[in-house]
Amino acid sequence: MRQTFVISIVLAFAFVSTARVHAQVDPELVGESPSDSGYAWGEGARPAEPEDPLRIMAFLGAGFGFRFIRNIDPEFQQEFLAPGYLDLGAAVFLPGAEIRHGFGLALSTNISPDVANATYASPVLGQWLVTPSYHFLVPLRRVLSDMDHDWVQLQGRVGVPIVFSTNRRGELSTVTVGGEVAAAAHFKFLAGLGAYVEVGLAVFGGTNSTFHPVVGVDAGLLFDYEVLP
User: Where are the domains of the chain?
Assistant: First the structure.
């Protein structure tokens, strides 16, 4: 009887020890899934996505403008529709994540004449704008969890356009400095190629203390290049 009792105690102890070891190695017995194994502070969590590298963008497009406040006195005789124009520009964006900061330079010229009197009229290619600007870029894949690819981006910029105007004889007539804010959406159909649509507001100071705001809409091609390390 004593031997039977001792054997029973030993078998019970072995059964309890085996159950404890099995509970430690089997996560289902302690209420964990296999993917949750690890330390409590998230050893198995998804690592943070690294910053995007330096990015260089170039833009080639065309657009037109609207004068919602016109100077229609005899001195200017402005029309509601401003001349169409061509845009060529580039910007460099620093490495970053959700918001990329950058700096750019744009060159624009008119592809239709500015309808006005003989004193202030500008022929085709008679106005040239040089615009240094600050840019910021928001890749939507960084802020939308269900977007895996860098297909859509939002861009904003603030610039200082410098306008060089010539007269009908091709002589430089005026130099004007203004301010500009713009917002654009980028749609990329290839890794380094896409299209953009932009809306902007530019304000210029004219002669005799006049005020010239212009709302511009343009679109074109986008070239995107990431400088990989």
Answer: 2-36, 54-227
Backbone φ and ψ of 27, nearest 5°: -65, -25
Give the C-alpha separation, 82 to 182, whole Å. Answer: 17
Q: How do residues 24-80 score in pLDDT, each as one tens digit?
A: 444 444 444 444 444 344 444 445 667 888 999 999 999 999 988 876 655 667 788
CA distances from 140 to 65, 76, 94, 135, 137 (A): 28, 44, 17, 16, 9
Question: What is the fold of 54-227?
Answer: Porin (2.40.160)
Q: What is the pTM of this model?
A: 0.72
Query: Residue type for 186, please?
Result: H
Angle made by CA atoms 192, 93, 193, in degrees to the nearest 5: 10
Structure tokens at 25: 């190695």
* Alpha carbons 182 and 196: distance in angstroms, whole number: 12
In angstroms, the CA 194 to CA 100 distance is 18
Q: How far apart are CA 136 and CA 159, in angstroms?
A: 12
Structure tokens at 139: 């890749």
How far apart, in Å, do the first and last CA atoms of the chain sit? 79
Length of the chain: 229
Rounded to an integer, what distance in angstroms lies between the CA atom of residue 52 and that of residue 101? 12
